[in-house]
Amino acid sequence: MMNKGIDREIDWRLRVFESLSYPTIILLPDRTIIAVNGRYLEKMGVEEEEIIGRSCREVNLRNYPEQKFPCAEQGECPLARAVHTRSGQSVLLKYHDVYGGEGWEERVFSPILGADGEVDFIIESIRDVTRVKNLEKMYSGVRELIDQVVQTSVSGIIAADRQGRIILMNRAAEELFGYSGYDIDNVNIEDYYPPGVAREIMRKLRSEEIGEKGKLPITRVTIRRKDGAEVPAEMTAVIIYEDGREAATAGIFNDLRDKLEVERQLKEAHAQLIQSEKLASLGRLAAGVAHEINNPLTGILLYASMMREKLEKDHPLEQNLRYIIEDTQRCQEIVKNLLAYSRQSNPTRQYFQLNEALGESLRLVRDQKLFLHVKVVEDAPAAPVLVNADKNQLCQVVINLIINAVDAMDGNGTLTLRTYEDRPNRKAILEVSDTGGGIPAENMSKIFDPFFSTKEVGKGTGLGLSMAYGIMEENHGRIYVKDTSPEGTTFALELPLVPMSDVILFDSIG
Ligand SMILES: Nc1ncnc2c1ncn2[C@@H]1O[C@H](COP(=O)(O)OP(=O)(O)OP(=O)(O)O)[C@@H](O)[C@H]1O
Ligand SMILES: [Mg+2]
């Protein structure tokens, strides 16, 4: 299929040319086609005579009428470029086959130089790269999809190379760790954890101690944000291997702060439920006992008083009767407190400033000897904090807290009394803090129980806090230990805050 006049000596070359599996033509620098192989004729569906002696431009335009060849535009002809640069050139073309399908071909132009260094011929061969192109397209589509999945994941995803340099960080990870894409070059994966943690994770990943080698099942970790804050998180990680060697590591992180907070609240609510159930049943028992005891006590007191009145002065039994009366009164006091705890008395509500209750309570106890070396700090806001509760009952509670606080300090330390508004939660708060020794953890669940006391016999009945608990519930408030440690304890009383709009009502009443 060669042009006539070609020397026989180069016949083997022609055969090589003919057997090339790519459609190929040979051209002169002026674009005249001088040879064509069978593959080319097959692909284009033409005869040799239709091609030889014509210019490639003519042939191309005829065979690909809808195709916009680069040579149609000035200066873009790859053949001219190959001639000019004396080096191979290639061009990628999109075509439509006879069935309307789309394909891609790569045309490679290789110049053949003569002895003078000038280009004598150009070999143009066509390679169909449709399959490669389609694969490429599919791959980039999949890649895009993966990118999107990674970027929009609610879990933080981070990948780092062997040196710990960050090679991928999605938006959730940026948020969780507080870094932005700009920081990527300046951080190392070790900066994402408190010291030593990254190494420990790598050690576990490489060992088989927990699960498969190279994989870390869901694990609780502490991560470190850019601002230094340490945050609890849950993570899984993998080592990415390439040819059996570690190439990178990837980790998926979930912020545990919300989850842990919910868990904590649940636990607290549960503990509170148990506590109030326990107190409710104890309350019923106490109420029953108190009620039963109250009547005989009244009798004892009445008869003892009557007897005492009838005794002559300085009668030897007079002193004994006085003891009976005093102890009976003490019993009555206990019964009264028990009834308060078990909510057998009805509160008489009034509007008042929380500070007033504080001031009045303090006045009632301050003179006691115990206060001698106690420094009292009052911390109240300028604006009044209004509540609607039984003031006398509240004073009783405050007095109990103050006495407990002073007891805890053994009469030596600082007593801080604080009132304030918790506007967002619409609460009025009164806090009593001391610098005493604190409440041991094992006692925390018992301090509100009736008769729980660590004080020596005769000093405490263990009714103060249980009574306070009952009173606060009765007044739609609550009492709790806000803080306790060997440095001191803070008890808080919480009552519904009276909105400012009720002040008018308050004014008209009080
Ligand atoms: N501020 C405090 N610091 C340390 N421990 C405290 C404090 N307040 C209460 N407690 C502990 O809680 C226990 C129960 O207190 P509660 O007021 O109910 O009874 P009490 O003070 O022992 O006796 P009562 O109040 O009946 O005289 C106390 O015995 C003490 O162990
Ligand atoms: Mg007490």
What is the CATH superfamily classification of the largest domain? Histidine kinase-like ATPase, C-terminal domain
Q: Which outline best applies?
A: rod-shaped
Give helix and strand order, one letter per element, not per position: HEEHHHEEEHEEHHEEEHHEHEEHEEHEEH
The main sheet orders its strands as 2-1-5-4-3
- In the CATH scheme, the class of the largest domain would be Alpha Beta
CATH topology call of the largest domain: Heat Shock Protein 90
Total beta strand runs:
17
The CATH architecture of the largest domain can be given as: 2-Layer Sandwich
| Quaternary state of the chains | single chain
Distinct small molecules? adenosine-5'-triphosphate, magnesium ion
Structural class: alpha+beta
Taking all Cα atoms into account, the compactness measure Rg is 47 Å
Report the span from N to C terminus: 119 Å
Number of helices: 13
- Helical content stands at 25-40%
Q: Beta-strand percentage? A: 25-35%
Structure description:
The chain is of the alpha+beta class and 510 residues long. Helices cover 39% and strands 26% of the residues. The chain has 13 helices and 17 strands. The protein has helices at 11-19, 38-44, 56-63, 78-85, 130-152, 171-177, 197-206, 257-310, 318-341, 354-365, 391-408, 464-474, 503-509, and strands at residues 24-27, 33-36, 89-96, 102-113, 119-128, 156-161, 166-169, 215-224, 230-242, 245-255, 350-353, 373-379, 386-389, 412-422, 427-434, 478-485, 488-496. The strands form 4 sheets. It has a 5-stranded antiparallel sheet with strand order 2-1-5-4-3, with helices on both faces. The chain has a 5-stranded antiparallel sheet with strand order 7-6-10-9-8. α8 runs antiparallel to α9 (318-341). Adenosine-5'-triphosphate (ATP) is lined by residues 400, 404-405, 408, 434, 436, 438-439, 447, 452-455, 460-466, 489. Its EC number is 2.7.13.3.
